[in-house]
Amino acid sequence: MVREALARRRISRQTLAVQAQISLSTLEKALAGRRPFTLATTIRLEEALGQSLRRDPGRTAPAPEPPPHAPDELGSYSREGVAWIEGCYLTLRPSFGTVGAIFAYRTEIAWDAGLSRLVFREAERMDAPFAQSGSVAVPSQSGMIYLVTNWHGQHRLAVLCRPNIQGEMYGILTTLHAGRGTQLTPAAAPLALIPERAADLAYGRIAPQEPGHARYRAYLDRVREDGYAAFFTDVS
């Protein structure tokens, strides 16, 4: 029920932990089944989510079975048809705040049985309160993969080409860039999702002089150099 509430509200586990005034570690362990939810924790989660998480013992009717495929607006795919996308990815984009730096974090893509769809969530972000989560669209017509965040009508969208032979996905991120004060500006940037196989991964803001920057930059440069996306600056 907690996982479904997170997916429906498009919020991260970190955000829920802050709102419920519990530690992220406590929430992660409970969701992984390594420790039970205490009554106090359950009550705090109910207050943060605005819904009851305790089942009525008088209810005996079985829960309806989820549909066998994702809804039409996400591509009507089955889990078997998209299982090759599931996994954890090193995610790279240019830093919006530091020239030349690369912003690195993790994106986890997994099947949500309750919602009958692929969902994603971001982790290892140095700006954890801004970590995104949402649904994954895989329409057969375009052959693209879309990571969609819809937070009360505010959208963020990643458009990715299907994985290459190494499992890497490249494309464009469209989002809002925080400027001065409360000013928000539409922004687009190249985006790379690389399967997490290496042991020496670094997360956060990677400056040009830091180890690993050249390797990360090579991944990002492939977006333009290999034609995974186009950026137009003059449409006249």
How would you characterize this protein structure?
The chain has about 240 residues and is an alpha+beta fold. It has two domains: about 1-50, no CATH class; about 70-225, Beta Barrel (Lipocalin). It has helices at about 1-10, 15-20, 25-30, 40-50, 80, 215-225, and strands spanning about 85-95, 100-110, 115-125, 135, 145-150, 155-160, 170-180, 185-195, 205. Helix 2 packs across helix 4. The longest helix has 13 residues, at about 215-225. The chain is globular and about 60 Å long. The protein starts with a helix and ends in an 11-residue tail after the last helix.
What tags apply to this protein structure?
single chain; 236 residues; alpha+beta; Lipocalin; 2 domains; eight-stranded antiparallel barrel; 6 helices; 9 strands; Helix-turn-helix transcriptional regulator; Lambda_DNA-bd_dom_sf; Cro/C1-type_HTH
Short note summarizing the structure:
With 236 residues, the chain is of the alpha+beta class. It has six helices and nine strands, in the order H-H-H-H-H-E-E-E-E-E-E-E-E-E-H.
Give the oligomeric state of the chains in this entry, treating copies of one chain as homo and distinct chains as hetero: single chain
Span between termini: 51 Å
Major sheet: arrangement of strands: 1-2-3-4-5-6-7-8
CATH superfamily caption of the largest domain: Quinohemoprotein amine dehydrogenase alpha subunit, domain 2
- Please identify the top-level CATH class of the largest domain: Mainly Beta
Please write the string of helix (H) and strand (E) elements.
Answer: HHHHHEEEEEEEEEH
- Uncertain residue segments: none
Report the mean per-residue pLDDT as an integer. 88
Number of strands: 9
Q: What form results from the Cα inertia axes?
A: globular
Strand proportion, as a percent range, falls in 25-35%
CATH topology of the largest domain: Lipocalin
How many helical stretches?
6
SS-based class: alpha+beta
Radius of gyration: 19 Å
Which architecture of the largest domain does the CATH hierarchy give at level 2? Beta Barrel
The percentage helix is: 10-25%
Count of spatially separate domains: 2
